[in-house]
Specification:
Mean pLDDT: 92
Radius of gyration: 18 Å
Number of strands: 12
Low-confidence stretches: 2-6
Largest sheet: 9 strands, mixed
């Protein structure tokens, strides 16, 4: 769903000469370091000091299957892949859309869910891409939502915000006509606001994956194996039902 603003070349320059921890290194240590944003409900969210959300529970379950303890790191979204390049953690799970551009800088796991960018507005507001003509739209900076809203002809003003929740707040306070964000995050907002907002059409679809440092094939293999096992043994479905009331894996 999201996209870092840094270019692939800039990310490559930030890569350290040190090697990322391989699966053998991590298994020997018994602990894996995982990074997320902590500001993207219901996928990852800090509630006080507690980190929660679908992606947090899923990553904890995968680590448990791999026999590892977890150390969580939270970073602003735009810093997550930079930190990965600098070996500050082993992998990132933060709703990164798998894009050709990103695949030049990092390696992605199999998708851990599928989603899309949806329009959310107040009742009577714009529900389609065509209806965004002459309207103002709020989006989180550095995301694929921003990129895709800019492709919609006739949008009067695109207002960017540091966090997705800031963009939602702009919609709720009437400072913009619509907010474009993740489909499931939008449904969560609609449910929480009870009739104050409604969800319109999808602007685009995308697959979401966990990111590891480019070339860390042994860790990627273990992550994909753990995800496949979680899907086959019902762990994934249980977590998905808890947060969304449906199975959000790619089908």
């Amino acid at each position: 769903m999201k996209k870092v603003m840094l270019t692939i070349a800039a990310l490559s320059l930030l890569a350290t000469s040190a090697q990322a921890r391989t699966w053998a290194d991590i298994k020997k240590a018994g602990t894996i370091k995982i990074a997320t944003e902590g500001a993207f409900p219901p996928f990852n969210l800090l509630k006080g000091k507690e980190l929660t959300g679908f992606e947090v529970d899923l990553a904890n379950a995968l680590a448990k299957q791999m026999g590892l303890k977890v150390v969580w790191v939270t970073q602003p979204f735009d810093n997550l892949l930079i930190g990965l390049q600098q070996d500050r953690y082993d992998f990132v799970i933060a709703s990164h859309g798998i894009t050709p551009e990103r695949l030049k800088a990092v390696d992605f796991s199999s998708p851990h869910y599928c989603t899309g960018g949806a329009i959310v507005t107040r009742p009577g507001g714009p529900m389609t891409a065509a209806a965004l003509n002459s309207k103002s739209v709020a989006v989180q900076v550095g995301t694929t939502y921003l990129e895709n809203v800019r492709k919609v002809p006739g949008v009067k003003d695109v207002k960017t915000f540091p966090k997705d929740t800031d963009a939602q707040a702009a919609l709720m306070s009437g400072r913009v006509d619509a907010w474009v964000g993740d489909k499931f995050t939008g449904l969560d907002l609609v449910k929480a606001q009870k009739g104050k907002v409604v969800q319109g059409e999808l602007l685009f679809k995308e697959r979401i994956g966990m990111a590891v440092k480019k070339g860390n094939s042994t860790l990627l293999k273990e992550l994909n194996g753990a995800l496949a096992k979680a899907i086959s043994n019902g762990t994934y479905a249980k977590i998905s039902q808890q947060y969304f009331g449906t199975d959000v894996r790619c089908k």
